[in-house]
Amino acid sequence: MSQNSNNARQNALDYHEHPIPGKTATALTKPTATAHDLALAYSPGVAEPVRAIAADPADAYRYTNKGNLVGVISDGSAILGLGNLGALASKPVMEGKALLFKKFANIDAVDLEIGTQDPAEFIETVRRLGPSFGGINLEDISAPRCFEIERALIESMDIPVFHDDQHGTAIIIAAALTNALRLQGKSLDDIRLVLVGAGAAGTATLNLLSDMGLNRARLRVVDRVGVLHTELDDLPSHHADVAAETDDRTLEDALKGADVFIGLSAPNLLTPDMLMSMNERPIVFALANPDPEIRPELAHSVRDDLIMATGRSDYPNQVNNVLAFPFIFRGTLDCRASRITPAMKIACVEALAALAREPVPASVLSAYGAADLSFGPEYILPKPFDPRLIERLPPAVAAAAAADGVARMPYRPYPNATGA
Length: 420
Description:
Rossmann fold
């Protein structure tokens, strides 16, 4: 291991250990300076909101933190790019997610690591925790179990349940693709799209793009077995749904004449020859982390008509879930939506894409040390520290919730929603 790698590792460990272990803590929101304060906070005063909530459960949103509290929940079966390391090892990631909720949308979040990887046990545990929270963010759960878990929880709970590895990723990819297609003069309903990696994020991405008008007849999906095609037997349901009637069998076959490559797979799968075989003005989203399916330097040396995105912060056009999940939850909580619908996801996509086409505020340029950022091949998504995200995305999501009939109250922005 290099000296730089040793330093990076130690810096990360020190960050998590000092000055106190972990990344989150409890903050008090009411005065506690006098005996009278404590009598209101606990006995006997606390009996009054208890009686009110027993008479009308909706009063939990008036008298407790339920309406601004999200459970960030994992079983540790698919931690980042590290794999199945178990519930306890996932805790730093879940704490980190809670930190991002608070920082970007002033949402309080509690990380919960569930000590089972049996889907039925996990579902029942989370369902029983439901009264505590205004929403559930599932995280780092492997496919295909994650589909069963999310579906069952959505059906059995009256609060929004959102698996960010699926839908957060899909929203950012869809927003980036919306703008890349605009720049390349192409349309979603007419492109040939190749997706590599039909796991949680890939499946959700295809479902969202289909809702937005993707022509599935022109889609090719590649997984470990090669191109998913209708002559393959015993495909899991999420693979069978995207199997094509085609003679293509390899990634090389599928990419000939393709307009878009979306990689959610492994490093260095996309070769220069494959890239050269794509259609004019190609779009390449190489999102494997930390090493993409093709390095941007190599890709741009092969094609000068390319628009490219990665999952990395050290290249332009980072596909970063923090652009979506705090804000879609903020809008959802602020209209007390019972679930997150496809239309709410699309509203988030459209608001994100539109924001990237606007002039960038000076505060954002300063935060990123940039002299200029403007809509174009190297700027197709807003930056996470753009203060307009909290202004634009939540009301767009809430408006879609109201149109879909899942909002239980008019949208009302949360105080100081810009967070910590």
